[in-house]
Write a structure and sequence with these properties.
Elements lengths: L17 H12 L1 E7 L2 E11 L8 E3 L3 E10 L5 E12 L5 E10 L3 E9 L8 E2 L3 E12 L6 E10 L4
Parallel strand pairs: 3-10
Antiparallel strand pairs: 1-2, 2-4, 4-7, 5-6, 5-9, 8-9, 9-10
């Protein structure tokens, strides 16, 4: 992710209260986009905020329910808005992707939408190896006509369910 703190050191949770840390996390998950178009400079904003998991890549267990909300703002027409819980592989061999849950909304230039996704009890779990990596994220996508889609991701670490 780009340096959204503008070169400043990212705050630690011990530096201030839990609510302030959650706000900083939301700021970190937010991605601002600018591009030059024939009509001028267009700014867009997309952010994902989790209700109860903290950190830049919060750990969740297989079977956990994730709740939160997605927020966006665009000066351009938005055809559709998608909020997805996804996993994908990176590395050698055949790549795999999966969408575990999805909310698709009619386009709106601005909005905030709550979401609720359940991480499958059977996984797959996150894995970071030399040959293959399995990644998880909640992804917000704004489909903007004649432009690259605007996206924001909240990475997740999916762990085994504690027995």
């Amino acid at each position: 992710m780009d340096d959204v703190f503008g070169g400043l050191e990212q705050p630690e949770p011990s530096d201030f209260g839990a609510q302030d840390f959650q706000a900083a996390q939301s700021f970190e998950a937010a991605q601002n986009f600018e591009s030059d178009t024939p009509t001028g400079n267009v700014a867009e904003f997309a952010a994902i905020t989790l209700d109860s998991h903290a950190g830049p890549a919060p750990s969740v267990s297989c079977g956990d329910v994730l709740t939160g909300y997605a927020s966006w703002s665009s000066k351009q027409k938005v055809r559709t808005v998608k909020i997805q819980l996804r996993f994908w592989t990176e590395g050698r061999g055949t790549t795999d992707t999966g969408t575990v849950g999805q909310i698709e909304l009619p386009g709106a230039p601005n909005g905030t939408e709550p979401f609720r996704f359940e991480v499958p009890a059977s996984g797959p779990m996150s894995y970071y190896g030399d040959m293959i990596t399995i990644r998880w994220a909640i992804v917000l996508t704004l489909d903007v006509p004649r432009r690259r889609d605007t996206t924001a991701e909240q990475p997740l670490n999916v762990m085994p369910h504690p027995s």
